[in-house]
Design brief:
Order of helices and strands: HEHEEHEEHEHE
Oligomer: single chain
Distance between the termini: 34 Å
Helix content: 25-40%
Shape: globular
Number of domains: 2
Number of helices: 5
């Protein structure tokens, strides 16, 4: 709701679809939806229905096999993230710095874990990057994923991540 009118105008002019998930937080989703509607911006909820979440645990020692992980990871190339001009194959790699800082950990992200969009020569270079495991995949305990967990706010405990 804090976006300036230029944001909404740009979304409308470029046929941008705003798709959000209704997380269990104090946010007026109806107000956001109305704001989009009033600005002729396409809007939808990413997910409706019974809300559950999953635990995608980390292996803090980085002992997992990236090649094996990427074969069964449903997030690989399904949730590509752009952060600070860097394209990451998943959200965990892009934002692990927040986890590291909060829990005083040191899961490493190297220059092989992303591709700098300002340095690529063509789209094929991006596609080739996205189709391979990255070193950070060694921290994902894919076989330890827990499904259908209660949809709730985080308690901000490390047990939610390992």
């Amino acid at each position: 709701m804090k976006q300036e009118e230029l944001f909404w105008k740009t979304c409308h002019e470029n046929n941008i679809l705003i798709s959000i998930t209704q997380y269990p937080i104090n946010l007026n989703y109806n107000e956001i939806e109305e704001k989009a509607k009033n600005n002729n911006v396409d809007f939808r909820y990413y997910f409706r229905g019974k809300k559950t979440m999953q635990k995608r645990p980390f292996d803090l020692e980085g002992r997992q096999n990236p090649e094996d992980n990427i074969k069964i990871c449903h997030m690989a190339n399904n949730c590509v993230q752009l952060r600070d001009g860097k394209l990451f194959t998943c959200v965990e790699t892009a934002y692990i710095s927040i986890f590291n800082e909060y829990f005083n950990k040191d899961l490493k992200v190297t220059d092989k874990d992303y591709i700098d969009i300002y340095k690529v020569k063509n789209k094929d270079e991006i596609f080739n990057f996205l189709n391979k495991p990255v070193p950070f995949c060694r921290y994902c305990n894919i076989l330890g994923i827990e499904q259908e967990l209660e949809w709730r706010k985080s308690k901000k405990e490390i047990t939610e991540w390992i």
